UniProtKB/TrEMBL annotation:
<comment type="similarity">
    <text>Belongs to the zinc-containing alcohol dehydrogenase family.</text>
</comment>
<dbReference type="GO" id="GO:0016491">
    <property type="term" value="F:oxidoreductase activity"/>
</dbReference>
<dbReference type="InterPro" id="IPR002328">
    <property type="entry name" value="ADH_Zn_CS"/>
</dbReference>
<dbReference type="GO" id="GO:0008270">
    <property type="term" value="F:zinc ion binding"/>
</dbReference>
<keyword id="KW-0862">Zinc</keyword>
<keyword id="KW-0479">Metal-binding</keyword>
<dbReference type="InterPro" id="IPR011032">
    <property type="entry name" value="GroES-like_sf"/>
</dbReference>
<dbReference type="InterPro" id="IPR036291">
    <property type="entry name" value="NAD(P)-bd_dom_sf"/>
</dbReference>
<dbReference type="InterPro" id="IPR020843">
    <property type="entry name" value="ER"/>
</dbReference>
<dbReference type="InterPro" id="IPR013149">
    <property type="entry name" value="ADH-like_C"/>
</dbReference>
<dbReference type="InterPro" id="IPR013154">
    <property type="entry name" value="ADH-like_N"/>
</dbReference>
<keyword id="KW-0560">Oxidoreductase</keyword>
<feature type="region of interest" description="Disordered">
    <location>
        <begin position="1"/>
        <end position="21"/>
    </location>
</feature>
<feature type="domain" description="Enoyl reductase (ER)">
    <location>
        <begin position="8"/>
        <end position="343"/>
    </location>
</feature>
<dbReference type="Pfam" id="PF00107">
    <property type="entry name" value="ADH_zinc_N"/>
</dbReference>
<protein>
    <submittedName>
        <fullName>Alcohol dehydrogenase</fullName>
    </submittedName>
</protein>
<dbReference type="Pfam" id="PF08240">
    <property type="entry name" value="ADH_N"/>
</dbReference>
Length: 357
């Protein structure tokens, strides 16, 4: 089969790789029907995630069909259409028993495309399949479902839930990429007074408006003043960092109000300064986190009912074997306008970014 292989910083290729096989009784082999590219994959290619060894097939999000299972798998069987979660859960360790699957110590956590071969291939081996794949209802199309593998659970859990968004809050989302847009869409479920999106790209700010942001700010044009004006000088109740660079984290720390919450979602590849000389007196709660995907069943039900704007995030689609082209488009989002790219559909289609909630 073929897969997209990481060979070191700046080096990758769509090439022949060994077919996956069942190695443990809890494994499942999934034929990949739809897969997407994550910003984390770009961080890997830049060398920001040194745990990823050269020779690893990238990717941690997919939709596909079970073709083989190990002897201990009970919840799915060959022929089932499933969502492959970005997080693998052993189900037995302390963290899994507490629903913190991202911190699994029994051989799971974020392993696909990280510590073992991932989903950007024709087939993928999924360990601990009973807790790591989700049967899909027929009402949820591949292009919708694949966005529930990582993007929506991450924006919802690490951003909205960790940030404790409440009715009447002012919520600021810094970074209107896919995760930031998912955070905007799911923050609306909690009836905040206003949502403010901050980004450098005009196309993403427009998308943020269409996903539910009440105000937008160009990051280069003093967003702090806008937030101060909107809140009467108090600052934001909740600030969600969805970029992963020092400047955006430090901006978030400046605009959160005393007693507010700063939820960091972005993947950071460089140190960011924590200005405790300013923050120590402000009663600010700062959270970090890797998604646990405990919300995936809920989000699947919402998607099935048409309550999530999943498909509107997909701006480009490609055949599976156009992986390098898809990476080029996604990696140059400022020029291409890409939000999410999905591979595995039969044709290459570019659609306008016209999200609605």
């Amino acid at each position: 089969m073929k897969g997209y292989v990481f060979h070191g910083p700046g080096q990758s290729a769509w090439e022949e790789v060994p077919d996956p096989s069942v190695q443990e009784p809890g494994d499942a082999i999934v034929r990949v029907d739809a897969v997407t590219i994550c910003g984390t994959d770009l961080h890997i290619l830049k060398g920001d995630v040194p745990e990823v060894r050269p020779g690893t097939v990238l990717g941690h999000e997919a939709v596909g069909e079970i073709v083989e299972t190990g002897a201990d798998v009970r919840t799915v069987r060959p022929g089932d259409r499933v969502l492959v979660s970005c997080i693998t859960a052993c189900g037995r360790c302390r963290y899994c028993r507490e629903g913190m699957y991202g911190q699994c110590r029994g051989g799971g956590g974020w392993i696909l495309g990280h510590r073992v071969d991932g989903t950007q291939a024709e087939y993928v081996r999924v360990p601990f399949a009973d807790l790591s794949v989700y049967p899909l209802p027929g009402a949820v199309a591949n292009e919708d479902a694949v966005l529930l593998a990582d993007i929506f659970p991450t924006g919802y859990e690490v951003g909205v839930l960790n940030g404790r968004v409440r009715p009447g809050d002012t919520v600021v989302v810094v970074g209107a990429g896919p995760v930031g847009l998912a955070a905007i869409a799911t923050a609306r479920l909690f009836a905040p007074e206003r949502i403010v999106a901050v980004d450098l790209a005009a196309s993403r700010l427009q998308a943020a408006k269409e996903f539910g942001a009440d105000a937008v700010a160009d990051a280069s044009e003093d967003p702090e003043q806008l937030i101060e004006d909107l809140t009467g000088g108090l600052g934001a109740d909740v600030v969600i960092e969805a970029v992963g660079v020092p400047q955006t984290f430090e901006l978030c720390a400046r605009v959160v109000r005393p007693g507010g919450h700063l939820a960091n979602v972005g993947v950071h590849g460089a140190p960011a300064t924590l200005h405790l000389e300013d923050l120590w007196i402000k009663n600010v709660t700062i959270t970090t986190g890797l998604v646990d995907t405990h919300s995936t069943p809920t989000l699947l039900r919402m998607a099935s009912a048409g309550r999530l704007p999943t498909r509107r995030l997909v701006t480009h689609t490609f055949p599976l074997d156009h992986m390098q082209e898809a990476y080029d488009v996604f990696g140059n989002a400022s020029e291409t306008g890409a939000l999410k790219v999905v591979l595995g559909v039969p044709q290459h289609e570019v659609v306008a970014v016209q999200p609605t909630v």
